[in-house]
Design goal:
Strand order of the largest sheet of chain B: 2-1-3-4-8-7-10-9
Strand order of the largest sheet of chain A: 6-5-4-1-3-2-14-7
Distance between the termini of chain B: 45 Å
Low-confidence stretches of chain B: none
Radius of gyration of chain A: 27 Å
Mean pLDDT of chain A: 93
Low-confidence stretches of chain A: none
Bound molecules: thiamine diphosphate, iron/sulfur cluster
Shape of chain B: globular
Strand content of chain A: 15-25%
Oligomer: heterodimer
Mean pLDDT of chain B: 96
Largest interface: A-B, 69 and 58 residues
Number of strands of chain B: 10
Shape of chain A: globular
Structural class of chain B: alpha/beta
Helix content of chain A: 25-40%
């Protein structure tokens, strides 16, 4: 990796949760963003607060990227487990990341923790930077009069890791110092200590591992970038859209967004209410929208399951919203709470009893998270229906570098409103349009009644046949109207070779990996296909999709679930059969390499189902057991190693 | 924030009656008394109907919102409290009234009921307590006594009943009262006091359901079934009881008053049932708290805020 032309760098940090993995990775990603690289980073963590393994990948390149790679170029291991796996568990869950480091790549690790790392890494081409974290801390802290207190400040091991990474990658020392100082802005003494530690480590690496340092690789010099997570993009859009009320019940990975909103609620007035449960969250939000305030709630699968009744309530009372942000994670039930899955498409479409209209959008990246969130508030007001944004952990928690959002064309549209001059106001008046003007409680002359029961034009209950027919028609035709008014190029988007015989259809967060496959220099043997990204899920954009599929012979659907939910929906809506389903349901997003393998194979050898995990196509029925067995065998072969630095209770396994 | 009409237009009881709607409660139902009590209270306070929102649950009692001339939301079973909360937080200037059954509020909605007390939102929750799930034809509700069996229950109730007053007080409601549906004037006075109370107020109204509850009938409440022919109900104030917290900012004073109120609620004096105001504590509301956190809320309600042309550039700058 001494090649200065190298344009794609995959850095990963691993360690016990609570040991600073997140903050170091964020610091690294931020600095790379400022240096003008394209940055894409994603995190994997256990449903645990302290102790279990987490890892954070930050990929930087000088061409656009929106996915992660299987291999790692630079691995920063804060503990032994990050290198070699969790062999102390009854059922090991992973075998560490040392094996993912590419030949020519580098590993930065704590030589106090893993003194025998050299013997355990097979690839001799990997550059090993064994750094005695404790001694470095002890010595560097001399400068601030805290020499020898390395143990007390062991949490700053992550700053050692950061300083070492910066030296290894030959990032100018000044830039590193500024980044550290800013990261601790407001905490002066901490900032100083961390800066000293980073600088000391930087010099240590230069002095001891000079031959291993990789020349600074050229940055495209992108200016004005921001580093943003999907959940922040949604939050900012909510502020921009004038959302004034957000209710939520804590759940991973949705909570991030509410926490972000809460931090800024005083500047963009928004009441953020933590509720007693999700049933309450949705009901509060429905009533707040009836009360005239744009409202939303954010949740994940188990929470949305509880919101079903409230969605129907919003729909039958023709509330203008709320916007429900559904951050998908692995199910069923509590499933794998901190991992990725796209398993809630069908739940979003069919969550209530009876037929009811609800808009479902599935944005695919941070920009779309922003623009679709802004738009969906207008749609709720315009059509007086609830709406779901199908988001997920992958984009919600991944940080990417992007240009700041362009807000010049964004408008706030509150939809048809009652005009005080009208007499005999009826909230659900039939007047040609399925959407009736609404009044807002507090307005004189606008009194209306509404009910979760079927009701007539004045909002009072009625079970009459004619009324029922008309009301069903009124509500259900809203989505037809929406489809007519919705720009076709926002319904589905086509990327790549529009004329290719092969169409890959996907939704939501797979956008990045498929775009990367089509557009990046990394894909020399890039398969030829058109990628159709379905962004509007309900109402289903049948026409736009038919157009996008025109001339396509092989239809491949790629998604992150077991049941091929979108493929099923397409079979229901389109005349064309789906030829291949490329699936992944191991709780991790598709890597670039997996998508590439899957699609190449699907084109060459089309078949019903292709299941990917750990960078390869696998036999879904046996592979999981085999993998666990292999890990257990490997543990047998190796003598018991050092005890983990963060002790776990006996037989601790979740 | 005491609610009264600022003197312009005078409103009378008929102004709070919804036109053109047929009331489909059974003849003789206690609900009529509560409905009249609410309308009388609104008229006494002179609140403009368009500044009132009535949020109801599901059940016979849930239909109440349709019968009142005010913004009316007949919501989901058990969800009165969250819906009332959303409405009030959208617009702090509205008078928000929750109405619903005992099954609705203390059964399916029990979690929300408790949370509603903790928040101390400024709203009033009138609970129609007929010991019965009436609209589903007479099953036991959480307030029916263990061993009691109405004519529509196939078996005696095997659960202990909840005590609404004690539950409300321990949940944190800052105004807790009980009244009797057939004493309309008294119910109206209590509801008016509850509306004027800044904070979460609960009025549990003991109600007859002639269709299903043949135990707690008018005769029973009036004690005509007893030898001494004395009403079962008595008024707290007639016994010199006052549930007002004397020193609202003093935690000791609060807990002492609470304990006394709960004791009143639980004490059984020869089967006599107290009505009146058990507990009243004037303290900061959820809205007060939110207005402190969000300065703009101190001068106006969320619904009145300008949401056009918001500048998000400071948020983007933070991410650079
Ligand atoms: C989620 C849900 N579960 C059950 C029902 C059926 N249901 C309708 S009314 C009712 C009972 C209402 O009892 P209560 O709240 O005491 O009111 P009452 O009819 O006595 O006034 C029930 C269980 C429903 N509508 N929704
Ligand atoms: S069933 Fe009971 S509560 Fe319902 S209307 Fe009839 S009498 Fe009233």
């Amino acid at each position: 990796m001494t090649n200065t032309q190298r344009l794609d760098l995959n850095w990963m940090i691993g360690g016990a949760q609570g040991s600073g993995v997140n903050s170091t990775a964020q610091l690294y990603a931020k600095l790379m963003t400022r240096l003008g690289y394209h940055v894409f980073s994603n995190i994997e963590y256990h449903s645990n607060i302290k102790g279990k393994h987490s890892n954070f990948r930050v990929r930087t390149a000088n061409y656009p990227i929106r996915s992660h790679r299987e291999h790692v170029d630079v691995l920063v291991a804060l503990d032994e487990e990050s290198l070699f796996g969790d062999f102390y568990q009854r059922y090991p869950t992973h075998r560490g990341h040392a094996g993912k480091v590419k030949s020519g790549g580098a590993i930065i690790y704590d030589s106090n923790e893993v003194p025998d790392a050299q013997d355990r890494i097979d690839d001799q081409e990997i550059r090993l930077l064994g750094i005695p974290f404790r001694e470095i801390l002890n010595e560097s802290l001399e400068e601030v009069g805290k020499g020898g207190e390395g143990k007390k400040y062991s949490i700053m091991g992550n700053t050692v890791a950061f300083g070492a990474s910066m030296a290894l990658l030959d990032i100018p020392e000044k830039q590193m110092e500024t980044a550290v100082r800013e990261a601790f802005a407001g905490k002066k003494s901490l900032a100083e200590m961390n800066e000293v530690v980073a600088r000391y480590t930087y010099n240590y690496v230069q002095d001891n591992f000079g031959d291993k340092i990789e020349p600074h690789f050229p940055s495209p010099g992108l200016e004005n970038q921001i580093l943003i997570k999907g959940s922040q993009a949604v939050g900012i859009a909510k502020f921009k859209a004038g959302c004034g009320f957000q209710s939520y019940y804590p759940i991973s990975p949705a909570t991030d967004e509410s926490v972000y909103l809460e931090q800024h609620q005083q500047d963009f007035p928004m009441q953020i209410i933590q509720t007693e449960d999700e049933v309450s969250a949705i009901n509060m939000a429905v009533s707040a929208t009836h009360g005239g305030v744009r409202s939303s709630t954010s949740t994940s699968g188990p929470g949305y399951a509880l919101m079903a009744e409230g969605m129907g309530f919003s729909a039958i009372t023709e509330a203008p919203g709320p916007v429900v942000c559904l951050y998908q994670r692995g199910g069923p039930s509590t499933g794998i709470p901190t991992r990725q899955e796209q398993g809630d498409l069908r739940m979003a479409l069919h969550s209530g009893q009876g037929d009811y209209p609800a808009i479902v959008l599935a944005p695919g990246d941070a920009e779309e998270y922003f623009y679709d969130t802004h738009k969906i508030f207008n749609l709720c007001d315009r059509y007086q229906v609830p709406a779901v944004l199908l988001l997920d952990k992958h984009i919600g928690r991944s940080s990417v570098s992007i240009q700041p959002f362009d807000t010049s064309d964004l408008e706030v549209d509150r939809g048809p409103r009652f005009n005080t001059g009208e007499h005999e106001y009826q909230r659900y008046q039939f007047d040609g349009s399925p959407v009736s003007p609404r009044s807002i409680p507090g307005e004189e002359g606008g009194i209306f009644w509404t009910s979760s029961d079927e009701h007539q034009q004045d909002g009072h209950i009625s079970e009459g046949i004619g009324n029922r027919m008309s009301m069903m028609h009124k509500r259900m035709s809203k989505l037809k109207l929406l489809l007519e008014e919705y720009p076709e190029d926002s319904q589905v988007k086509v990327f790549g070779n529009r004329d290719s015989d092969v169409a890959v259809i996907s939704w939501g967060s797979n956008k990045g990996v498929l775009q990367d496959l089509l557009g990046s220099p990394a894909s020399e043997n890039q398969p030829d296909f058109r990628f159709i990204h379905l962004r509007l899920i309900n109402p289903f954009p049948e026409q736009a999709l038919q157009k996008a599929l025109d001339g396509a012979e092989t239809i491949i659907v790629l998604e992150q679930n077991w049941g091929a939910h979108l493929a099923g929906l397409l079979q229901e809506k389109l005349a064309k059969p789906v030829d291949v389903r490329i699936l992944k349901f191991d709780g991790r997003p598709f890597s670039y390499d997996e998508a590439s393998i899957g699609i190449t194979d699907a084109i060459e050898n089309p078949r019903e189902r292709i299941v990917l995990t750990r960078g390869a196509i696998r036999d879904e029925e046996t592979w999981g057991y085999e993998e666990v067995q292999n890990l257990l065998d490997e543990r047998e072969r190796r003598p018991r190693q050092r005890t983990p630095s963060v002790p776990l209770p006996p037989n601790y396994n979740r | 924030m005491t609610k009264t009409n600022n003197g312009q237009k005078k409103y009378k009881i008929p102004d709070y009656k919804a036109d053109n709607i047929h009331n489909d409660w059974c003849p003789g139902c206690g609900d009529y008394g509560i409905l009249s009590g609410i309308q009388m209270a609104l008229a006494n306070l002179g609140l403009p109907p368009h500044e009132v929102a009535v949020i109801s649950g599901i059940g016979c009692s849930g239909k109440t919102s349709h019968y009142i001339n005010a913004y009316g939301f007949h919501t989901l079973h058990g969800r009165v409290v969250p819906n009332a909360t959303g409405m009030k937080l959208a617009n702090h200037d509205l008078t928000v009234l929750g109405v619903g059954g005992d099954g609705d509020g203390y059964g399916i909605g029990a979690g929300h009921f408790v949370a509603g007390g903790r928040r101390n939102l400024d709203f009033t929750y009138v609970i129609f307590n007929n010991n019965i799930y009436a609209l589903t034809k007479g099953q036991a509700s959480p307030t029916i006594g263990k061993g009691e069996q109405t004519k529509t229950m196939p078996e005696q109730s095997i659960y202990n009943p909840i005590n609404p007053v004690a539950l409300a007080i321990s949940s944190g409601y800052t105004f807790v009262a009980q009244s009797y549906a057939l004493d309309v004037k008294y119910t109206a006075d209590i509801i008016a006091r509850a509306i004027q109370h800044p904070g979460s107020a609960v009025v549990d109204v003991l109600q007859t359901c002639p269709a299903f509850n043949n135990l707690h009938t008018k005769t029973w409440f009036e004690g005509l079934d007893r030898e001494e022919k004395q009403p079962r109900l008595y008024k707290l104030e007639d016994e010199g009881y006052d549930g007002t917290v004397p020193e609202p900012e003093n935690p000791d004073s609060v807990s002492k008053t609470k304990a006394a109120a709960i004791e009143k609620a639980l004490a059984s004096k020869n089967g006599r049932i107290p009505v009146g105001v058990f507990y009243e504590h004037r303290t900061a509301t959820l809205e007060d708290y939110l207005s402190k956190k969000i300065p703009a809320l101190a001068s106006t309600s969320m619904v009145k805020m300008d949401i056009y042309d918001r500048d998000i550039s400071p948020l983007l700058d933070e991410l650079r």
